Amino acid sequence: MFCKFVALALFISGFCSTVFSQTQAVDSEGHQWWQHAVFYEIYPRSFMDSNNDGIGDLNGIASKLDYLKSLGVDAIWITPCYPSPQVDFGYDVSDYENIDPMYGTLADFDRLQQEAKTHGIRIIMDFVLNHSSDQHAWFIDSRSSRTSAKRDWYMWHDGKGSAEPNNWVSTFGGSAWTMDFKTGQYYYHYFYPQQPDLNWRNPAVHDAMFDVTRWWYKRGVAGFRLDAVDTLFEDPELRDNPVLPGLNKYGDPNETDLYNTKLPEVHVVLRDLRKVADENNAVLIGETWTKDVNELKQYYGDHSNELQMPMDFMFTKVDRLSPPEFRRQIAAVDSAGGWPVFVLSNHDIVRSYVRYGDGQNNQAIAKLMAALYLTLRGTPIMYYGEEIGMQNTDPVRKEDVKDPIGRVGWPQEKGRDGERTPMQWDDSPNAGFTRGTPWLPVPLIYKTVNVASELKDPSSILNVYRSLLALRHQNRALLDGDYVALNENDPNVLSYLRRYKNEAVLVVLNMSSQPQQVSFDLAPQGFDGKTARSLLTTMATGSQAGSVSHLSLEPFSVYIGAVSK
Ligand code: GLC
Ligand code: CA
């Protein structure tokens, strides 16, 4: 009787589906698929061009699934490939339920999805939920008159006299308000004027956007990367943001985005999106720019009921190889209670090869950084090209800039073209990306920095990534082990243990340009064996199997070994 009652209550509250999806664990400890997966971000314009128009496409991605599989990728996040005027290269969506012809068709998408599935690779779509394109049918209707059916789907306000409704500036430069002369009101856009913000306080917008997620789940996608989640809500009173001294790189006054970002209402939407994701065994990844771990924590939700994977961008802010700084970041994230999501690069940030490199040892440093984020507890999200050590190729002349912020902010802000150049596949013209003219230039270094050449070189960055990912996939301690910091006062070498029951993996990263000697006492961690069995090292001098109490490290080298009781 009681059971029946409980069953009925669960059913009515819609709990059944949640319980169902949560039982789809990949191991007896309840881990979900995304906790053991390696994610890889693909910028579709730049990955592989199948029809030689110079722009990458879905069929191009499909042709590289074997490569992705053998690299060790389990899920790809494709940045927006929906119909779009491409003002922000796809982040201005004019139809959420279709594919832009430059990238292919829905049939191509379905084929990609099927082929990815047979490769064991899931697809994550990018959901641009804060704003649409100004060419979306919703906005065209919305701006057509003050009384149009969709007027309230966007943020329309009267000016203050002849001025904008308030002092908010767009993060891409200029006022965040654009006057629509036909209807005599301003609309709000946190990004470009061609990216009007949707009005998330309107239930019709909420419903329409939720339907979009269901539509893609039905097509088989495994989740979404939620674009710019911070920006969904704005202060209803439109209070002015506090102004700070000085001007930013676009010449606008510096402001704190107090009243137009990170409003608490965001979390209500995230909780609702999560319910739908759970019904579909899907994962939600967040573009969560947070200033510290306390902010990051909020995105997991008080009851782990918001984002499963809020991205931790804090590594991207550490601009030098500083073991104490990385140690602090890792410890903070590790103790936050959620499942960490480490990111080194993406399509908005200068490539990690350049950011962490010292100009002389960049190859070794790229391997070092790979070893760091691929051996930590949590799920890594890679960025295409990182695995071969692609560099930034920034435009040298303003007239060559494609990304509009690079024209507005030139020369201080050169835009994001540099980190979005075509993937370098081989040493044939245009690095094998296209036989047409690539939409962004391929740097000459492609002759040596490319997938085909690096596959042949056992010590290439690519082969280090492949080995690390292979190790990560089969090693229980790397997948699920605790993170235990070691030698915490060492200013040069970052070391830790990943400990899982009776097994442990020792990770030692020399972040300095000098050889280093390290010594570990692992007895307090329950591992009193004196030697480690080498699993991976980037040292020229070979395996270094060795003594845990006396390990010699070459400059910027990696040592990973298994230790036992
Ligand atoms: C996110 C995207 C970025 C885009 C912006 C506006 O930050 O990563 O590329 O320009 O949102 O959609
Ligand atoms: Ca193409």
Shape: globular
Describe the biggest sheet? 8 strands, parallel
Helical/strand content category? alpha/beta
- What gyration radius follows from the Cα positions, in whole Å? 25 Å
Termini separation comes to 51 Å
How are the strands of the largest sheet arranged?
Answer: 11-10-7-3-2-1-13-12
Strand percentage lies at: 15-25%
Low-confidence stretches: 1-23
| Number of contiguous helices | 16
Mean pLDDT: 94
Number of strands: 21
> Helical amount among residues, as a percent range?
25-40%
Bound molecules: alpha-D-glucopyranose, calcium ion
SSE layout and pairing:
Blueprint: H1 2-12, H2 15-22, E1 39-42, H3 58-62, H4 65-71, E2 75-78, H5 106-118, E3 122-127, H6 137-144, E4 156-157, E5 177-180, E6 185-188, H7 203-218, E7 223-226, E8 243-247, E9 253-255, H8 265-279, E10 283-286, H9 293-300, E11 309-310, H10 323-334, E12 341-343, H11 352-356, H12 362-375, E13 379-383, H13 404-408, H14 451-456, H15 461-474, H16 476-480, E14 482-486, E15 493-500, E16 503-510, E17 516-518, E18 531-537, E19 546-547, E20 551-553, E21 558-563
Parallel strand pairs: 1-2, 1-13, 2-3, 3-7, 7-10, 10-11, 12-13
Antiparallel strand pairs: 4-6, 5-6, 8-9, 14-15, 15-16, 16-21, 17-20, 18-19, 18-21
Alpha-D-glucopyranose binds next to loops.
Describe the fold and architecture.
The chain is α/β, with parallel strands linked by helices. It is built from 16 helices and 21 strands. It has helices spanning 2-12, 15-22, 58-62, 65-71, 106-118, 137-144, 203-218, 265-279, 293-300, 323-334, 352-356, 362-375, 404-408, 451-456, 461-474, 476-480, and strands at residues 39-42, 75-78, 122-127, 156-157, 177-180, 185-188, 223-226, 243-247, 253-255, 283-286, 309-310, 341-343, 379-383, 482-486, 493-500, 503-510, 516-518, 531-537, 546-547, 551-553, 558-563. Strands 11-10-7-3-2-1-13-12 form an eight-stranded parallel sheet. It has a six-stranded antiparallel sheet with strand order 14-15-16-21-18-19. Strands 4-6-5 form a three-stranded antiparallel sheet, with no helix packed on it. A hairpin with a 4-residue loop joins strand 5 and strand 6. Helix 7 (203-218) packs parallel to helix 8. The longest helix is centred in the middle third of the chain and has 16 residues, at 203-218. It is globular. 47% of the residues are buried. Residues 1-23 have low confidence and may be disordered. Bound molecules: alpha-D-glucopyranose and calcium ion. The site of calcium ion has 6 residues, from loops.
